[in-house]
Amino acid sequence: MESRRTLYIAASVGASLSYIFNVLAFTGTFDVFRWFVFAVVFLGFTYGFEKLVDWQT
Q: Which run of H or of E encompasses 18?
């Protein structure tokens, strides 16, 4: 479980940094609420995809 938590944290940090840099580059503004929604949806899809892969194997 420790390695899975580490992978979730690493994926979240990478996706969040990518989102922040892209939003700043293309719009010039940053909204914390939109970033929070992105982070929650990203973690939800990541968790769901992991469960789908576990179910298939």
A: helix 2-26
Please answer whether residues 38 and 18 qualify as being in contact, where contact means their C-beta atoms are separated by less than 8 angstroms.
no
Q: What is the largest CA-CA distance in the chain?
A: 44
pLDDT score for 12: 94
Q: What is the mean pLDDT of residues 6-34?
A: 95
Q: Which residue has the higher pLDDT, 2 or 1?
A: 2
Residue-level pLDDT at 37: 97
DSSP state of 27: T
Q: How far is it, in rounded angstroms, from Cα 36 to Cα 16? A: 9
Please give the Cα distance from 46 to 12 (Å, whole number): 9
